[in-house]
Design a protein that fits this description.
Helix content: under 10%
Mean pLDDT: 91
Radius of gyration: 13 Å
Largest sheet: 4 strands, mixed
Number of strands: 8
Strand order of the largest sheet: 1-2-3-4
Number of helices: 0
Length: 103
Amino acid sequence: MRVTRLEPVFIDARPEVLEPGKVYISIPFRTSVHLCCCGCDNEVWLPIRPTQWALTYDGETASFAPSVGNWNFPCRSHYWIRNGVVDWIPAWRNDGVAVDPAM
């Protein structure tokens, strides 16, 4: 089932079980993880770095930029996370995605 909102949960260590609808954020490790919002249960890791993803937290919700493109997953889901809302974008066709073979 598709997720339409993500609740931020700040952590120091990765939880044993990830819950749908939550994005786990580790400031000390500068990363986040959530289950793919399409419902496929793949883990999506977003490194919080100037050259990767930027995190904005307003005290209640989290936003990430750029968009999340899960090109290496069978679901190929593509979405923005803005103010805790998952904003779906159509998946790109194979000829529109340059996937790093090392990933």
